[in-house]
Design brief:
With 485 residues, the protein is of the alpha/beta class. It contains 17 helices and 13 strands. Strand 9 and strand 10 form a beta hairpin. It binds beta-D-glucopyranose (BGC).
């Protein structure tokens, strides 16, 4: 039985056992986090009350889903929306005929990767990869400097492989919101995560990269420009043809899916033969127009105020790994202000890895590592086992909300696509390292889209392998004489 079918069964059993269906309040309850169990019942009740705005019930999630659907429609129609709904011009997924040698670049985090990949009959035969660190000066300085550095890295990589005289097609995974004009061109809309380079307004990032590569006399042509979600979808579809959605749940978060071409208004290329096309939603910006203000808490306000790019990427700040550690910190600080927690964690001492650690220990019924991490973060020896349980509870509440919100997006897409079964390819550090996020997502997606069969699968390295596969798809279409998208 597939994982999706198992999910479906589990939820059906819960419903039959009286947790849903007939009594709507019971269905609502299925979304609540596990209650806080402390010997001091009064303290537990006060903490639960203080965090109640972070606990979303079923009807709130349905409201988020309705808003998401409206924003999707508006975005596709090019009406005002917080969702970019960008046409990626990727109309085909792998079919096992992908061939050739490609370079792939992966830019999105503090590490930049250059990859060489060789494909034969859709299979990866050979792969070489080199990582380069992108320092603060490059991430926050002039865009030209960053792109010159990227080209230097490509040159260094090729020299290290003795391939600097060879000819290559390149797939550029640029994990930021773009306005795409074709499969190989697009402008940055805004930086996100930890990047904020100047001088990039209206600049085509593929053309800029091409210029920097050509200036180094490298015979490398940028053939495709893609987002990491697109790469993840493509890499996932290479493993399972049922993949129709790609999701990143890592430092940042985003999703893409295969949409009917007829529902997409933004086309700058002839597309009469295109049936479906991959749409990059850019759900990190969901709510930037205020449409999700009903969810926002004072803790979110603090996370936003302390972020690099204030008042943007609202949704990403609820779910992205870049922000969950700050959310844990500010929530514990608020409890400390109210006398419900003994100490204030120092800013940026608790990271998203701590959210995962606290959740992991909570699942195992342990507290020792939680306690020592808290003592270090708060610079205090005053913390007790009960305090560690409180911190684990906060980590659980914010993880639960993150899982719920991503699940709203995925379940809305499942309904929209309305296929008998859709596999969802997921990548990203939060999905891979958080001990219960996948389980929570399976549960919530099934509760929110009970009539739709799905499974979540890990699709690793969409930014590398997916990029090379996309370049191979573009090459395959060109040899078939399909008009260039
Ligand atoms: C970017 C997206 C990207 C996501 C995951 C977000 O901050 O806007 O384009 O897909 O991070 O890397």
């Amino acid at each position: 039985m597939s994982a999706a079918v198992e999910n479906q069964r589990t939820v059906e059993i819960e419903l039959v056992n009286g947790h849903g269906g007939a009594d709507p309040r019971k269905w609502e309850d299925l979304f609540l986090p596990t209650p806080l169990k402390l010997e001091n019942r009064l303290r537990a009740q006060k903490i639960e009350a203080r965090l109640s705005k972070l606990m979303l019930c079923g009807s709130t999630l349905r409201r988020v889903a309705e808003v998401f659907e409206k924003e999707i429609e508006a975005g596709l129609r090019q009406q005002p929306s917080s969702l970019q709904m960008e046409n990626t011009y990727v109309p085909e997924l792998p079919d096992g005929t992908e061939e050739g040698s490609f370079l792939a670049l992966d830019l999105g985090g503090t590490n930049f990767r250059v990859l060489f990949l060789e494909l034969k009959a859709g299979q990866l035969l050979r792969e070489k990869v080199k990582h380069y660190h992108i320092n603060d000066a490059l991430r926050l300085g002039p865009g030209e400097d960053l792109f010159n550095f990227l080209a230097d890295c490509v040159q260094d990589f090729l020299v290290s492989q003795s391939m600097e005289k060879e000819t290559f097609s390149l797939g550029f995974t640029f994990s930021f919101p773009m306005r795409q004009h074709s499969i190989s061109s697009g402008e940055l809309i805004t930086w996100t995560k930890s990047f904020n380079c100047g001088g990039m307004d209206g600049v085509d990032v593929a053309a800029l990269l091409q210029r920097c590569l050509s200036a180094r006399s490298l015979d490398v042509t940028v053939r495709v420009l893609l987002n990491d979600t697109t790469g993840t979808l493509v890499a996932g579809a290479h493993i399972d043809r049922n993949v129709g959605i790609g999701v990143i749940l890592g430092t940042g978060s985003n999703g893409c899916y295969m949409e009917r071409a007829s529902r997409v208004l933004h086309w700058e290329r002839p597309h009469s033969a295109v049936h479906d096309v991959c749409i990059d939603i850019e759900w990190g910006a969901f709510g930037d127009n205020g449409c999700l203000d009903f969810l926002r808490t004072e803790f979110d306000d603090e996370v936003d105020a302390k972020s690099l790019l204030v008042a943007s990427f609202t949704f990403e700040k609820y779910i992205g790994g870049k922000y969950l550690g700050d959310l844990l910190t500010f929530t514990l600080s608020a409890l400390a202000r109210d006398g419900l927690f003994p100490a204030d964690p120092n800013f940026r001492k608790l990271q998203t890895s701590h959210v995962s650690l606290f959740e992991e220990e909570s699942c195992a019924g342990e507290v020792s590592r939680t306690l020592s991490a808290l003592r270090e973060a708060c610079n205090s020896d005053l913390l007790s086992t009960a305090d560690a349980l409180v911190a684990q509870y906060v980590a659980h509440v914010i993880s639960n909300r993150a899982a719920q919100l991503v699940s709203v997006c995925i379940s809305t897409l499942l309904k929209r696509m309305d296929r008998p079964y859709v596999a969802v390819a997921v990548d990203g550090s939060v999905f891979k390292h958080h001990p219960r996020i996948a389980k929570l997502m399976n549960k919530y997606i099934a509760l929110l889209a009970p009539a739709h069969q799905f499974s979540l699968m890990i699709a690793e390295d969409g930014s590398g392998k997916g990029s090379a596969l996309t370049a191979a798809i573009a090459a395959r279409m060109a040899t078939r004489g399909v008009a260039r998208l």
